[in-house]
Amino acid sequence: MRIVADANIPFVRDCLSSVGEVRVLSGREITPQVVAEADALLVRSITPVNEALLAGSKVRFVGTATIGFDHVDVAYLQRSGIGFASAPGSNANSAAEYVIAGLLEIARRRRIPLEGRSIGVVGVGNVGGRVARKCEGLGMKVLRNDPPLQRQTKDPKYVPLDALYDCDFITIHTPLTREGIDKTFHLADAGFFARLKPGAVFVNASRGAVVESQALKAAIRSGRLQAVALDVWEGEPNIDVELLGMVDLATPHIAGYSFDGKVAGMIMIYRSLCEHFGLAPKFDVTDFLPAPEIPRLQVETGDAGDEELLARIAERIYSISRDDRDTRLIADQPPESRGRFFDSLRKNYPIRREFQNTTVILDKPRESLSRKLRGIGFVVEGTA
What we know:
The protein is 36% helix and 15% strand. By secondary structure, the chain is an alpha/beta fold. The protein folds into 3 domains: 2-86, NAD(P)-binding Rossmann-like Domain (Rossmann fold), CATH 3.40.50; 92-250, Rossmann fold (3-Layer(aba) Sandwich), CATH 3.40.50.720; 296-381, Erythronate-4-phosphate dehydrogenase, dimerisation domain (Ribosomal Protein S8, Chain: A, domain 1, 2-Layer Sandwich), CATH 3.30.1370.170. Strand 9, helix 9 and strand 10 (225-230) form a beta-alpha-beta unit. Helix 5 crosses helix 12.
């Protein structure tokens, strides 16, 4: 079996070599010529998978090691009898931790308390659902908006989008859809931002085109928004460098890039490939995840408040500020090199582990802090 795979899927060669010959290359280098003789194709989000790529090829199975699959023409795959699998939930915790790290960093920079503040979560699936629960763990008031889930469940906890406009924070976690009743393309447009509470904080870690960039820039210029964190951008990898300079936190589409999430996504599509071709899988996540760099973290609480300590602790495990600094270097590149630089930040992204791998040891018991740490995913011991 011949397999073509994105080099940004960790351990893909080590794992998939057990079932076939694996060719690994950059996602943007996956072309019709590359896949012509392949039996299976494994990608991440930057490779458009459609008829233009696969027509005339031998590909019988496509897997994307991502939660979303708007980069895949699933209808074409179905018409062509090509098997397909994604990795729902694999990096959901990673993306949710990214949002929490962003909120804590913005709260620290802007001196905004999180506890008791309201946050609207647009899209409450694998990622948004975790974001909502973690925000509740921080003591925030969470409003959930998800029209498909509301229609499906009739649960009153899913409220209309209008109900979120008075929230102090708003974060988007929808797929990108361009038509239909639940279209999300440019969901956050000029009308959306005009309705937000003045001074709101806005976060987008879903898809870049869910937000209309010009409308977002206008909302920032007018002072309508107090702070903005963006992980996703219209026109990736050639992002708007003016917008880059206007937001508080800028990252290169890496919210879901924890090592735990990447390995989980790889294993999910590996097992789906095995099932598709009638093979027995040999590996699981535990075969590839190394021990965490910081398994135990001792913390002196002193006189610092809960949220200051939370920000310090989260930053030790995941420094969103470092990602922000690295991303801003895009603006220093010649215009023709910026897209390649954006891609290189993703390709060479350092290993980042999730909060669950670290036990926090507090020097003295503090129930409120312990509860919040557990609420965002840490294991906690009350005393040193």
